[in-house]
Design goal:
The chain is of the alpha/beta class. The strands form eight sheets. It has a 20-stranded mixed beta sheet that branches. A hairpin with a 2-residue loop joins strand 4 and strand 5. The longest helix is centred in the C-terminal third of the chain and has 38 residues. The protein starts with a helix and ends in a 12-residue tail after the last strand.
Amino acid sequence: MVQLSEMREFMKKQAEDDRLRKTVQVTGSSIDEALEQASIELNLPPSKIEYEVLEHPSQGFLGYGKKDCMLIAFEAFKEKKSEFDDDAFDLDFGEGQFASDIPKDRDGEAIVRLRQEGVFLKVYKPIGKGARITEREAVMKLKARGVTDFNKSVLASVIKQADGELVRLGDFAYNPMNDGLMTVEITDLDMKATVLLKEAGPSGADIMADSIIGLLKANGVIHGLKEDVITNLEDHPIYDSRVVVAEGSKPVNGNDARIVYNFEKETEGSVSFKEKRGKVDFKEMNQIQNVVEGQILARKVPREEGKPGRTVTGKLLPAKAGNDIAFNIGKNVKISDDKANAIAEINGQVILVGGVKITVEPVYVVQGDVNLKSGGNIIFLGSVVVNGSVEDGFKVKASGNIEIMGNVGKSEIDAEGDVIVHQGINGKTEGKVRAGKTVWAKFIENANVDSGDIVIATDGIINSNVVSNRMIVCMGKRATIVGGRLRATEEIHAKTLGSVSGSETTLEVGWDPRSKEKLTGLEKDLENFTRQIDDIERNVLTLENFKKKKKKLPDDKEEYLEELKNQKLETHNEILGCQDKIQEIKEYMASLKYVGRISAASKVHAGVRIIIKDAPLRVRNEFNSVTFVNEEGDVKPVKYEQLDEDLTKQG
């Protein structure tokens, strides 16, 4: 691509060449005579001389006012290779323009047209390095058409302007019998019109573009005229050969209606790329396409009516409209009122049954275990059924229920509804199970369980951290709670609590466990803020005492004092905020009507720690078939109270 600096250099060289070019001013009775004189003075043949006419010759009247021709002559421009030749002069026109569309060097052109009204001339400027049309060349073209009498000053002006406009130079002996001829032919079922031109004879008028158009219209050709072709025929006529000057437009049939799906029709699973350390997580296979109620699953692009065509004679050619198509929908999908969209009626998994029927399934079924082979982690806006187990390291999350026929390992299970594990949960201290409602399992071991309603384990809860918004129930032949920390709002009920070995087992009831946990955290924050403000106040006091003695602090100390004052204000606001939240939670907890009780149908071993509301009790002796309650701020054993209902039977 030529740079601006290179272009400037090129123009500079051109100007220098022009300055150094030798010129002469010569006169003669005619242009030819003046050129002969210039040839002698420049020592060049006339063919290598260019000139500009300063004054045209005039014969005067009766010998008076006669004038010689005066012109400036100079050596014709020499073509020479440079870095700006055809190969190197590569202009970058950007996208959308093509080098082939840009004309290369082309000489100027003079076109003589004879019309009834007289002799006409049009001149085009050269392109690139092309040569300009000279007066001599134009005169030769006029002579070739038998024209010798014309306005020379107008000729000079037309050549100088070179604007491509047709200008009248004078009259000629017009012979209408020798006018150019043309015929029109309409073919291809009126889809094409051609003209056949015959060259004008001596003193006959040439065929002009408006004449061609007039003849076409007279023959009924009114559509698809190729105006550029017709214009070119005026300047560069093609004789004795048919030229297509009009073409009809073919009808364009409308496109068929089609269904555009807003989900992947075929899913083979895409692997998730985790940015951390550039690792690929093969557990995130993204096989499930979740949708929510009201989501547009697919839309119909309407059929098109088509665009009619026309023959060159204007006859309308009808186009066919596209074919319509209907949605194929299955269960839990509806069609919008305007018939344009297919919409999900529920949360769930969208699938194409048989490759065509749009369906939303509320339940996602894993036929075996949840592992790499099955597609990795599961996240589903509905319920999930796992016909096997959930292996270590995998996640199952659902907006509905999660039912697992096998076991749960060191995994993450999260459901807005129930979590039902037909075998057991062995979290290996890291596994997490959360349910918006009930958690049900045969056993819970070394796991973290959080339930919005009830936790039920038939065979035991061992060394686990369990939180329930209502109650924790462990009732069965081997139903024992051993180790860990269990918290419930209303009740903890088991066959046996603790063990002979005295494993640390903490049981808490009577409070909303989450509010209690939040209260504990806020109280720790309040303690930290109070300690911080004490430290800040000591530092502020030290600096202010120093300032009183010295009258002024160094700039850095003064800046630090201001910073401490700001910190004090911020910390004071944090303390007030904590106090307000603590008070709010305490008022909420005081309003709760839960009495709270902890019961063992068979035995309570020594070492079990019981907390009912704010009252703690460390069990020192073994109890048989007992219920613990809070009486006047103390934990007291009372007669065993059975569960109000049998919760151990699922469903």
